[in-house]
Amino acid sequence: MQYPVDIHSHTIASTHAYSTISEYLTVAQQKGLSLFATTDHGPAMADAPHFWHFVNLRVLPRIHHGVGLLRGIEANIQNMAGEIDFYGDYLQELDIVLAGFHEPVFAPTDCLTHTKAMIATIESGLVDVITHPGNPAYPIEIVPVVTAAAAHNVALEINNSSFLTSRSGSKPTCLAIAETARDVGASLVMGSDAHIAFDLGGFERSRALLDLAQFPEARLLNRSVSATLDFLIARGHRHIDDFASLRE
After folding, report:
1. Model-level pTM?
2. In contact, 51 and 9? CB cutoff 8 Å
3. Would the pLDDT of 235 be above 80?
């Protein structure tokens, strides 16, 4: 199955990525994607764009050549309190907020610390998706994290890049996360975590893992544009009239 939505991508604004937003839009159209999110790293990352980059995402088109564009961020979890590096009323201007651990901002410590920080982030109400929670550099207590995500309607990402070029050794934890999410009613979402436009919409490894876990399609956000947008509205984001034509 080709999935119409990708919620995780990085442009040259994060300088360890290699494509412009225009290049992403072109590839999305070529691949038949209906909707994707641009989610550059939050400003606490060493090579991230400035805070104003995210404030000014409003200049981006909502739809270009039939492809919808969500204005987002992959924020950094900064501490055990679950604070992230984007804040205040500015968060309300974004369409989607991802957050995860990144070594330059939150150095790996121990399982208890990671678990408390991730649960605090989930409980904050500010973050829609936790990115690459299966990163072996940041071991967590899986059941409490996934249970918290289910209780607070926060999606957990199965990150395709984690099985290709990043975070080697992620599969066992990701599989356990998917199986626990299956059992406790949490939502999952696949993210390409593309750092070059060619990788947008690439979910082959993530999909194989979800098949292995027998995760129900009905709780996979990528299954449709409507599923993704309805999730974001339920999370408190505004309804975007321009996307009506993209809904199935």
Report:
1. 0.97
2. no
3. yes
In degrees and rounded to multiples of 5, residue 241 shows phi and psi of -60, -35
Burial of 172 (0-12, 13-18, 19+ CB in 10 A): exposed
**What pLDDT digit, counting tens, does each position of 22-74 carry?**
999 999 999 999 999 999 999 999 999 999 999 999 999 999 999 999 999 99
Least Cα distance to 149 among 170, 125, 172 occurs for 125
The residues, ordered by sequence, that sit 6+ positions from 109 with a Cβ below 8 Å of its Cβ are none
133 has which bridge partners? none
Going 42 to 47 to 52 to 57, the CA torsion angle's sign is negative
pLDDT of residue 21: 98
What fold characterizes domain 5-246?
Answer: TIM Barrel (3.20.20)
Per-residue tokens: 188: 């999952």
pLDDT at 167: 83
The CA distance from 157 to 89, in Å, is 25
Q: Kindly state the tokens that stand for 57.
A: 């995402």
Give the CA distances from residue 90 to residues 4, 53, 86, 219, 244, in Å, rounded to whole numbers and listed in that order.
28, 11, 7, 29, 24
Distance separating alpha carbons of residues 221 and 191, to the nearest angstrom: 10
